[in-house]
TrEMBL record:
It comes from Mesorhizobium montanum. InterPro entries: DUF1058. Gene3D superfamilies: SH3 Domains (2.30.30.40). This is SH3 domain-containing protein. It comes from the Bacteria. Pfam families: SH3_4.
Amino acid sequence: MIELGAPLGFLAVRRQVRRQLCNGLVRFALTIALVAASARTTGLRAEAGSLPLPRFVSLKASSANLRVGPGIGYNIEWVFKRRSIPLEIYQEYGNWRRVRDWDGTSGWIYGPLLSGRRTGIVTPWTKDHVALHAKPAADSPVAAWLEPRVEVKLTRCDGQWCAVASGPLTGFMKQVGLWGVYPGEVL
């Protein structure tokens, strides 16, 4: 601390100011190091669970809040209002899952509101109708034409074709025409 009443020369004042600046920088560096260390031990990070990440699930609840962080103390950014929509989990924190939907909307949702039952969305990235085939072959008869963004239940997938149901309709769709299953994934 510089005392105002004491006569100091220019060099003495300069040394005193330099010492105070150094002390301030050391305090600042130590504070940053402590904050960074506590963030590493208590901050958000993906946890290694027994199930792989990323993975697809569906919404079990008829209404679910999508939050900006993993806890009820975080703001609600979006509310899902439709049961069984497919969601992709790409991060976990305790009982919370960070998910995204086919539009790219993402946030944190409470894990027990999700189900392992698989569903899909028909080509949300196009405007064309998609054929629902009677058999898993491109030359098989077309049972129906499905509009983009129609939700389907996935029964099984062989990596190329998925057996699906949409209401009373059942049939097969090319796997690359669905959001909710990875290309080449076998169910």
